[in-house]
Amino acid sequence: MGRKITFEELFDSADPALEPAREVIRYRLLLACGMGIAALGGLDGIVFCGRYARLGGQLGPWLASKIQLRPPAPSPVPWEVFGAPLRRLVAEEAEIVLMERVNAVAEDAGSYRAVVDR
Which residues sit opposite 79 in a β-bridge? Predict the structure, then answer.
């Protein structure tokens, strides 16, 4: 009978009895990535973030070595681990975009005022 185990425990453990489970999880991950690549029409890179970001260090090199893309795509596929929560990364990007827009509006308003003040 099996036992409950987390992904972290599974991939951190050196127990040879867990190797079949690791192989199944890797295979399912590779299938999911393949489906995503097909749906998106390509791949720029692999990003590990959120709850399983720490596993990226172990799964990233393996996964990148298994994915074969047509040239001129890079080989092996680039991968990265972001330890920050995804919500934080999205919020930071949104803040950058918002500030760029605010600055652009301010610049346009300054140009308009300069014309009106003449």
Answer: 46
Residue 109 vs residues 11, 40, 50, 101, 105: alpha-carbon distances, Å: 56, 40, 40, 12, 6
The burial of 38, by beta-carbon neighbours within 10 Å (0-12 exposed, 13-18 middle, 19 or more buried), is given as exposed
Q: Angle 6-12-18 (CA atoms, 0-180°, nearest 5)?
A: 70
Residue 46: phi and psi, rounded to 5, are: -110, 135
Tell how strand 46-48 and strand 79-81 pair up: parallel
What digits encode the pLDDT tens for the residues 50-99? 888 889 999 999 999 999 888 777 778 899 998 877 778 788 888 988 98
Task: Write the CA distances from 117 to 34, 90, 105, 110, integer angstroms.
Answer: 60, 40, 18, 10
> Does the CA dihedral 26-29-33-39 come out positive or negative?
positive
Q: Give CA–CA dist 55/26, Å, rounded.
A: 11
